[in-house]
Amino acid sequence: MVPQLGFGEALSLAFSRIGDMKGRSRRSEFWWTMLALFIAWILLGIIVAFISSILSSILCVALFCAFTPLMCRRMHDVGKGNGLVFAFMAVYVLSALCSIIAIATLPSFESMLLSGNIGGTSATFALLSTVLMVVYIILGIICIVFWAQDSQGPNQYGPSPKYPEGKPQYGPQQQ
Asked: Would the pTM of this model clear 0.90, i.e. be above it?
């Protein structure tokens, strides 16, 4: 069994394979990289939100999409395909786009008061974005369950990066 990756090793491996949709990734590579991504996502969101909420949304989507191959490789490690990851990402991107459209079409407060129209295009896209975010959260929970599972032995996606000689049949499992 290969020892668990440290933070620096995991990030280095993930960034060296950032565009690679094939093969497999271990839990340690995945979770250390997701921690770094989450921190970067929050910092980027906070910093850029002061400049533009639309720019913040676009940059967060781009950052998240850059790690889609890692998510796919992690699914491969537990013997699953890419479909769930692509659905998860598509719903996220659609929700972000609906948010951007809702913000971009938001009328000024004065024009809403004068026209009496509180709803309209902006409200419709905001509601759609909210519904999509609920679906995204449900898909995210399903993905997390798969991402948290232990590596399988060799499968259709290649040999296990954690168990190069095959998964032990019994005994304590180490990460």
From this structure: no
Written as one letter, the residue type at 108 is: S
Residue 98 in tokens: 């609906």
Report which of 61, 69, 155 is spatially closest to residue 99, judged by C-alpha positions: 61
Residues 114-151: tens digit of each pLDDT = 565 556 778 888 899 999 999 999 999 999 999 999 98
Q: How far is CA 33 from CA 42, 101, 102, 117, in A?
A: 14, 30, 31, 45
End-to-end CA distance of the chain: 9
Helix spans in the chain (H): 7-16, 27-49, 53-66, 68-77, 83-104, 109-115, 121-147
